[in-house]
Amino acid sequence: MRVFVTGASGWIGSATVDELLTAGHEVVGLARSDTSAAAVAAKGAVAHRGDLDDLGSLRAGAGDADAVVHLANKHDWGNPAETDRAERAAVGTMLETLAGSDRPFVIANGLSGIVEGRSVVETDPSPAVGPGSDRGGSENLALEYAVQEVRASAVRFAPSVHGRGDWGFVTWLAGAARKHGVSGYIGDGSTTWSAVHRTDAAQLIRLAIEQAPAGSRLHAVAEESITTKAIAQALGEALGLPVTSIDPSEADEHFGVVGHFFGTTMTAKSDITRDLLGWKPTGPGLIEDILAGAYA
């Protein structure tokens, strides 16, 4: 298949491009800069210039593709309303282009805010509905297009999609540890996260394109529950730093933007995903990755 990938030069996107090419697919990657275009082309994919605000470029990329993977997001923490607006407009444009074609559309989402008090399961709908909601309600918007003959599925990623070269949450935690000279966890460290290795996440995206039925919610989760204290202890050992508790009132100051997420339990199960697609994660676990020096 010819697969159009937004976010193709990103952390998950670049691994997805590798996975798709290895499986024999042709990849066209959205690139908003010369640097991104060069990175996409260096992998053997075709660079397609544009960004999430260039709806004409998105329409053309989706229109020429046999499948679409949407991984890009503005992630503008200072202006979340703009991030949500751009996300919904971009997703809506690509879905309208695919309507009536029965072509696959895979959209990325996270686990935060879906349910409280237990691990998220695939049958839990996202509460984000409509333009004013988180990510512009793009997951629900995509799944609604199943009735318009788009084979849409949502892949919800664990808060840690880890590996060597990661620039996500765990990298920020490592940066805070270096800055303050201690590897911290919040309160008693009982808050828990799910995790998945980047290569396993990429494999799931490929399987979703190839096999997922329309309307599927899929979980890129290899490890359901890791305590934040265990993460801090592993970072402390890898970085040669002491490990300490950070008072919740000081978390934002100590950890920065990631403090809110580090103090929030974000876990999910992936049993339905594994049974549906035969997905079998084989990458190292998060603690194993940290102790092996992925963040050192």
For the largest beta-sheet, the strand count, sense and barrel status come to: 7 strands, parallel
Full CATH superfamily name of the largest domain: NAD(P)-binding Rossmann-like Domain
State the helicity in percent bands: 25-40%
Structural class: alpha/beta
Per the CATH scheme, the topology name of the largest domain is Rossmann fold
Q: Please tally the helical runs, counting DSSP H or I stretches of 4 or more residues.
A: 12
Overall body shape: globular
Order of helices and strands: EHEHEHEHEHEEHEEHEEHEHHHH
Protein name: SDR family oxidoreductase
InterPro entries: Epimerase_deHydtase, NAD(P)-bd_dom_sf, NAD(P)-dependent_oxidoreduct
Pfam families: Epimerase
GO molecular function: aldehyde dehydrogenase (NAD+) activity
